[in-house]
Amino acid sequence: MSLLTVEHLSVKFGGIQAVDDVSFRVEPGEVLSIIGPNGAGKTTVFNLISRIYDPTGGRIAFDGQDITAVAPHAVAGLGIARTFQNIELFDNATVLQNLLLGRHVHRRVNLWQELLFTPAVRRQEVAHREQAERVIDLLELQHHRDTLVHNLPYGARKVVEVARALCTEPKLLLMDEPSSGLNVEETEDMAFWIEDIKKQLGVTVIMVEHDMKLVSEVSDRVLVLNNGRVLAEGGVREMQSDPRVIEAYFGK
Amino acid sequence: MRFLFKTRYEHDIRLFKHGGAVFWYGLLLAALLLAPWLLDSYYVGQLTQVMIFALAGLGLMVLTGYTGLVSLGHAAFFGIGAYTEAVLLERGLPFPLPLLAAAGVAAGAGVLIGRPTLRLAGLYLAIATFAFALIVEEVLARWESVTRGNNGLPVPASRLAGLDLSQGRPFYYLTAAVLVLVVLGLLNLLRSPTGRALIAIRDSEIAAQSMGVRLSRYKTTAFALSAGITGCAGALFAHKLGFLSPESFTVLQSLELLVLVVVGGLGSLHGAIYGALFVVALPQGIAIARDHLPDAITSQPGLEPLLFGLILILFILFEPYGIYGRWLKVKFYFQLFPVYKRATFKRQKTYTRSERLR
After folding, report:
1. Which among A68, B15, B182, B341 would be 20 to 30 A from A31, CA to CA?
2. Which residues of B touch A74 (CB under 8 A)?
3. CATH superfamily ID and name for A1-79+170-252
4. How does pLDDT run across B272-294, given as a tens digit for each residue?
């Protein structure tokens, strides 16, 4: 059974049809890259899946459940985590606090217990911390642990954002341009980490990406969007030589 | 420079990070306990005043400093707390009940203004809360059967087993106890999921939401907590005033609370305490300065609001992290001496954020 099924998804902003009848499936454990020229609707598809936008048509099913009408905050609890194109971290908090917020969906205490900091809260905090440390180990963030995010270099922030998403223990990770703003070396690291996330944690990944080297290194399949529609879908090699894809990028 | 060697995760959770902190806060607590026996009753009264304002400031700090929601209407919650205390004491309710009810009623009012303004932020929210404060002020003036309107309402003494808790040393200790409890509660909250969720909302709503934080619920919680704490401070303030009238809870009072948190240092509990010291000390300072300044200056009306405004502007321009931020820098300077560099506290260039998603 597919992990994510998107059927005839459409959204209109005023008179602009940003996403038009898009359908695709994502199988558990695979890495799907969504590529396409600027304005093709890639990020909009992400925002539809993470329920920031309401679709005007079509449906989204995740893990056998229809999530087309689920509230935006409830998506994380179902097992979908995401990163943002322009990095949306909590700038005035430490890396560790950012990661612990990723544990938010797993909290099991109420406000009154927190005000008194009961033993249950303490146990839970330690458990959250252990999980966050596992992610820190995986992504090698040890020496940034107590740094305030606004003091971090850009490349490290990108990694922290991935780490925060992983702290929610997602089944599906949506990465919006993981390599944007990274140098060549950092992009290579990112490729390794995406491999690790897929192989070690068994997380399914959908990423929007422009860097074709990164796309060809990590993706199992590629979905090409153009003008809000699905242009082509298939393996990386196939897509790179597809005349329709070349036309969308370079024109006739 | 102190290096902490942590061997367990609990070390990161504890309230006092090292022995030095235990020592200094212990000393502070001892000083608080002994103060009424060592100081003149005038200074005990002033210290009580500082603690009341610190409490009100802590309330606003939760909302503005930690959740990032600016309120220009906290005098309303302050006033609601004060009137609840006075009215319920008049009806003969015994000691802790009016105080708790004041916090509860103010928290309810907080939810009342918090729910409809969930989608507002920044200036728009400030205007909405400002309007709310004006409405409350008007209600206090017009609802004469309960508040006696502009004629004013005397505040009956609050008693526990014959002890008058509304003045002198007992009042001081009551205020100190409430303050310490609230500070501990907030410290606990800030190291728990709810506190982190509030900070997350302040720094990026969109990311907080995609991490599973239900914005409406946490913003409402922040409003309720904030209003409740400020209402509690209002109840204590009622005894300080002794006689309530709507003019005590005007927009100027709201502004004073906002000045308190900004000057003290947004986003830190220390800030609320420092801010309260500042807000209470400044009028005293002006009074003392009056004796030494030429008549042409001292006879000007509105000297106090002018200075408040001027200091607020100067702080926002030159020390956005407030008194507490300045203190951290001074402390850092000596810890790192002689290698301290200015850039340590300089913010890096911020990168474009996805404004579209707001």
Report:
1. A68
2. 212
3. P-loop containing nucleotide triphosphate hydrolases (3.40.50.300)
4. 999 999 999 988 888 888 788 77
